[in-house]
Design goal:
Helix content: 25-40%
Strand content: 15-25%
Order of helices and strands: HEEHEEEEEHHEE
Largest sheet: 7 strands, mixed
Distance between the termini: 60 Å
Number of strands: 9
Strand order of the largest sheet: 1-2-7-6-3-5-4
Shape: elongated
């Protein structure tokens, strides 16, 4: 039996699906971020066309993008987007979870980049937090906060699993779990 791997599938999938994007509403309040982007992969050549297409109406024509190479395994110099060329640059000084978009006529926008492997609940929290008008929270602070929140949620789930694993056991006055056989009988004799 022969198996053929289709290595273009992620790129084709990214081109067909709309960008997962949350933008700050138009306001006079200036914040650290202008929204958040949750790509489906770490393939910039596949992901950027959908992002730029989604931003064409609210922001105009994006001509340049900068990223930190830490999160992107391959950074193309250019990406073809709807009949024009998008120039891609990288800077190690830029925060790894931030993407900067530039336009000759409209200006600059900074987006939080949510890692593709992030779960939907965490991504929703990050997208909402990055789109708050006038927020002073940076990409680094948002990602660090989410790490703490995620750790707290995992700890809560672990504690709940322990509780459920013990049958929701009551503790004796001596700190030992008590099962149903050690509980006193109620007045009617049923346990």
């Amino acid at each position: 039996m022969t198996t053929t791997l289709d290595r273009t599938a992620p790129r084709d999938l990214a081109a067909e699906l709309p960008a997962r994007l949350s933008l700050t509403p138009k306001t006079t309040l200036a914040g650290q971020l202008d929204g958040a982007w949750w790509p489906r992969s770490r393939d910039l050549a596949a992901e950027l066309p959908a992002l730029v297409a989604a931003l064409a109406e609210p922001w105009g024509r994006v001509t340049r993008v900068t990223v930190n190479p830490t999160r992107w395994p391959v950074i193309p110099h250019t990406v073809a987007v709807d009949g024009h060329t998008l120039h891609v640059g990288w800077f190690t000084e830029q925060h790894p979870d931030k993407l900067i978009l530039l336009s000759y006529t409209v200006g600059r926008w900074d987006l939080l980049v949510i890692p593709p492997e992030t779960g939907p609940a965490a991504a929703a929290r990050l997208m909402a937090a990055a789109a708050i008008p006038g927020s002073a929270l940076t990409a680094g602070v948002l990602m660090a906060n989410e790490t703490v929140i995620g750790r707290g949620i995992r700890d809560d789930r672990r504690q709940e699993a322990i509780w459920d694993g013990e049958g929701g056991a009551c503790m004796s006055p001596f700190g030992n779990p008590m099962d149903r056989s050690t509980l006193p009988l109620p007045g009617n004799g049923w346990r």
